[in-house]
Amino acid sequence: GQQLNQSPQSMFIQEGEDVSMNCTSSSIFNTWLWYKQEPGEGPVLLIALYKAGELTSNGRLTAQFGITRKDSFLNISASIPSDVGIYFCAGPLRGGGSQGNLIFGKGTKLSVKP
Amino acid sequence: DAGITQSPRHKVTETGTPVTLRCHQTENHRYMYWYRQDPGHGLRLIHYSYGVKDTDKGEVSDGYSVSRSKTEDFLLTLESATSSQTSVYFCAISDRGGAATQYFGPGTRLTVL
Predict the structure, then answer these.
(1) For residue range A65-86, what is the model confidence (pLDDT) as tens digits?
(2) How far apart are CA B101 and CA A47, in angstroms?
(3) I want to staple A109 with a disulfide (CB 3.0 to 4.6 A). Which of A3, A10, A102, B80 is the partner?
């Protein structure tokens, strides 16, 4: 079935370091979404990508839509303690796209040491 | 923040009892979704609604039913709760289909003993 594979599963970094994570699929996507979930909260949308090759920034966050349309990348520059959380990629669920159904990766858990 | 509330926020119940979770939105969005989140599985779609009285099954719908009698409310019912339904449940809303942005509620943590 359709799957989104995120890596790494978890990261432990020092404050100030840059972070890179990615999401891959065996099938083509026409949209990539990146969400962040903080402990005890629901996911919050960070960045949406709609075009192959697109590079979009949101503050210290930058996401890219891979040119093969089978992957996407999220980078965080100069990490700070409030970046802690789980980062999810998501894309349209095959056959459910017209209803807005999404499939989510299993997430990358980010821990930042001050 | 999108106006989405979920109730209750926490619930402990016993196996075999019926449970209803409520999602309420003030955004007048057409689409509403119920997900469950479990360690190692991420977010999985249970059911969704694309309008009042229009609902359909998602990836993990067995053991769950939904109803939407008003635009603002989407109810998720566990007819006879089982321990495998212990999870965190999230409601989400969207104003359009086609992989549009979904806004999530704060979640309900359900424990079935």
Answers:
(1) 999 999 999 999 999 999 999 9
(2) 10
(3) A10
* Residue tagged 């359009």 (tokens): B96
The Cα–Cα gap between B73 and B6 comes to 10
3-state secondary structure of A53: coil
Query: Per CB distance under 8 Å, which residues of B are interface residues toward A?
Result: 4, 31, 33, 40-45, 48, 50, 56, 58-59, 90, 92, 94, 96-107
Taking CB atoms and an 8 Å limit, are A100 and B31 in contact across chains?
Answer: yes
Residues of chain B neighbouring A101 (CB-CB closer than 8 A)? 33, 45, 48, 58
CA A71 to chain centre: 10
